[in-house]
Amino acid sequence: MHHPAQRSRLPIVLGVPTRDRAERRTAVERAADAAALGLRARLPAGAPADLERAARGDPDPRVRAAALGALARAGGRRRATAAWRIAMSDPEPGVRRRAADLAPGLGAPARPLLTLLGDVDVTVIEASAWALGELGPAAVRARAVPALAAVAGTHDDPLAREAAVAALGALGDPAGLPAILAACRDKPAVRRRAVLALAPFDGPEVDEALRTALEDRDWQVRQAAEDLLT
Description:
Elements: E1 12-13, E2 16-17, H1 27-38, H2 47-57, H3 61-74, H4 77-87, H5 93-106, H6 111-116, H7 122-135, H8 137-141, H9 144-154, H10 158-171, H11 177-183, H12 188-197, H13 204-213, H14 219-229
Antiparallel strand pairs: 1-2
Helix pairs in contact: 1-3, 2-3, 2-4, 3-4, 3-5, 4-5, 5-7, 7-10, 9-10, 9-11, 10-11, 10-12, 12-14
């Protein structure tokens, strides 16, 4: 579990911490600067190191998240992955969520994302489940399927269950099918996602679940089943 913590960090201005309030730029300005750097075709000399310092050490989570995104786009994989690993345990959920979002594009390892499936913030769980689904075989090898199935079957928040079911469908691993079938009896939003997640699978259980979904009281569940059966 992650808990917000006070940090004795100083703002990063072009990689140089400063205590002079007159010289400090606002967090919004620093985040905008970081994001703009990430859009450049080529970073100027010193910018990758500045972004890495900001991603690791700026006191404002908006700046840390923006700098991490810029590193992922333009800072080089080694430097970006090093900052990503730190961001995965950042005390602020917005930074952890951004790190999860960036994982597939970085080709980041799947195992740290499994830890975030137990995060206290449901949006972090949602982003981590999505990332695991995008990582495909690497996530399966890291044993993401049983971890996602546990979230799909036991998490209190339907958003987390829905995201986990979607990821299981994206992975298409047979070991995830029982959790998807069980989710076909969950709340409407989860049922809709579960029906769509059946797309990679076939067999009598799948056919039965789709036929049952055709009679669902939620029209979107019925529509999803019709789309898969036609």
